[in-house]
Amino acid sequence: MEDKNVLGTTLKPCCYQPKTGFYRDGFCRTGPEDVGTHVVCAIMTEEFLVYTKSQGNDLSTPIPMYQFPGLKPGDKWCLCASRWKQAYKAGKAPEVDLEATHEKALEIVDFEWLLELKAS
Description:
There is one protein chain. It contains 3 helices and 2 strands; from the N terminus they run βαβαα. It is of the alpha+beta class. Strands 1-2 form a two-stranded antiparallel sheet. 37% of the residues are buried. The model has no long low-confidence stretch (mean pLDDT 96). This is DUF2237 domain-containing protein. InterPro entries: DUF2237. It holds the Pfam family DUF2237.
């Protein structure tokens, strides 16, 4: 079965450098073992990175043992839909790549919110 994005078309890759996604295949795919639902392809901003770190999820510090380089503004990353929603409500959510955001995000996040912060 082909993965679909929030627009109802074929899911596009989010990012290969750094390699993102729950399965580290570059796509914001999900499955039963992905309890965080890492399906929102977001473009990191300094504001979001500071916010998420303050919430206990440090995405900017490298973790070499997991081949995680640490994220910087401009990097794309598959975020947990619930974290993006939390950041949206706090006014800190980063822009999203709709073509690379999995349709599963719509179970957690309003489509209008994603549309509002769609990357150009």
